[in-house]
Amino acid sequence: MSDCESLSNSPEPSPLTTTVTLQVGEEWFTTTTTTLCSESAFFAAMFSGRWPNTPQPDGSYFVDADPKLFKYILRYLRDGTLPLLYANGACDHGLYISLLEAAKFFGIDHLQQWIEKKRFLQAIKTSWSGNIVEGTVSLGANTTPDEDVQIYPVQTTKKVYVCPRGIYVHRGNPSACGKMCAKARADNFEYEEEPLLSTLIISKKTTVDYEMCTKRHWSDASST
């Protein structure tokens, strides 16, 4: 009886397992038959004894697949971690398409459904905000690694109070005007448009719901 068959027929998982080395493409991975057969129909069949499965001279088993994709496959089989494939804040849909085909090849239904239903999009939340402030600003050390802040100089205008007597030091400050200014002004406050250099601040904040990247979360969600 093979390792996979004995494990699947046993009422309780056996603490004994067989270490196995796989050559996937040009790279080697060491794991256990228990891990490989846990959810993969491909490996369950491979180690069932029904396939002519002869190891290579070095004792490893050859699997004709992309090793870069297989690392995600093996990580999922080991601990149920669902991959978030993002680069520079954007989802790598091309890599997800390739990983989906790998999940189909290795017969891992849960991982296949997780990608097909685009559940990885629910794990990433992105919020945007914009604000214009007077003058120039610098980012300094106030940003966090999950926040992308861009600043742009913009030309705006503002209304500036004009003293009715033309006193320059009163410009922009009505409270500086005295009784003579008030008499000259009466109730007619005058303002002028004045150019102003301002700064447009655009902030992009990305948060990750790590619980959504676990098999446990989706298993609990599907059972309710």
Automatic annotation (TrEMBL):
Pfam family, one: BTB_2
Highest taxon of source: Eukaryota
Domain BTB residues, every copy: 18-86
Alphabetized Gene3D superfamilies for the sequence: Potassium Channel Kv1.1, Chain A
Biological processes, Gene Ontology terms: protein homooligomerization
Alphabetical list of InterPro entries matching this protein: BACURD1-3, BTB/POZ_dom, SKP1/BTB/POZ_sf, T1-type_BTB
Signal peptide: none
Name the record gives this protein: BTB domain-containing protein
